[in-house]
Every structure is written in C-alpha cells, then in structure tokens.
Amino acid sequence: MNIFSFFRNRFFNSRVTDEKMWNSNLWRFYYDNASGEDIDETTALSSSAVFNAVSLISGTIASLPLNLMKRQGQSTAVFTDHPLYPVLHSKANPYMTSMSVRECLFSHILAWGNGYMEIVRDRMGQVVEM
C-alpha cells in the first residue's frame, strides 16, 4: 500500500456522517514524535525552561538600542527629528512602551515562528503608533 492509496481509502471512501472523519484526535498525524506526547507552542511554553529561555532572549533583543540613523556625507548620526523616532524609541502606543512592544513581538517570533504589528497612521500618512 503506497501513501496515495492510504489517503484515498482514508478520505475519499468515508462518509460525511462518519465520526472518525471529523474527530482530529483519531487521525494521529501530530503524534509522530518519539515520546508520543503532543508538543506545541502552548504546551512548550508551560515548561519553565522554555518560558524562561523565550523571555530571556526576547527581553535581551528588545533592550538593544533602536535608533533612526541619518547619513551625513561619510558619517551617520541619530535622526531624532523624524516623526517615527518617538514611536520606535520611546512609546509605541498609548498602552505600551517601545521596548515592551518589541519584547512581545520577539517572544511571538520565538514561540510561534512569526510576529505582526499593526501600523496606525494619521491622515497625512505618518506613523503615529504600532
């Protein structure tokens, strides 16, 4: 029996009313690890070692300085006059500082593989918060 006949017999010959077709716990596709336990990001983050590692890495990366730089001839300088500077450097939104937003973003990247931020702009198209 090859893999195609396995899926054909499993899915195409089943009825819609079949309980085994709709119960994902019976499929056993995600129990392919050596221990037989289901490990995902939620169960991994419940382990104190994984949670502390994610917290330490995301906190360290978020605490690194983030400045807008402007090239002036051969040298570069911090560009504090840009409207985006206070959003990136000090306060990302009314509820969170820039560091806490970056820490949350990097913890999502480490735990789930990606992270997203919504960019809020004013009527002129300038970024006012993230």
Short structural summary:
The protein has 130 residues and is mainly alpha-helical. Helices cover 42% and strands 10% of the residues.
List the helices and strands and how they pair.
Blueprint: H1 3-12, H2 19-22, H3 41-45, H4 48-62, E1 69-72, E2 75-78, H5 85-89, H6 98-112, E3 120-121, E4 127-129
Antiparallel strand pairs: 1-2, 3-4
Helix pairs in contact: 4-6
Keywords:
130 residues; mainly alpha; two-stranded antiparallel ribbon; 6 helices; 4 strands
Can you characterise this structure?
- The chain is mainly alpha-helical and 130 residues long.
- The chain has a domain at 40-129.
- Helices cover 42% and strands 10% of the residues.
- The chain is built from six helices and four strands, in the order ααααββααββ.
- It has helices spanning 3-12, 19-22, 41-45, 48-62, 85-89, 98-112; strands at residues 69-72, 75-78, 120-121, 127-129.
- The strands form two sheets. The protein has a two-stranded antiparallel ribbon.
- α4 packs across α6.
- The protein is elongated, with a radius of gyration of 24 Å.
- The N and C termini lie far apart (53 Å).
- The relative contact order is 0.10.
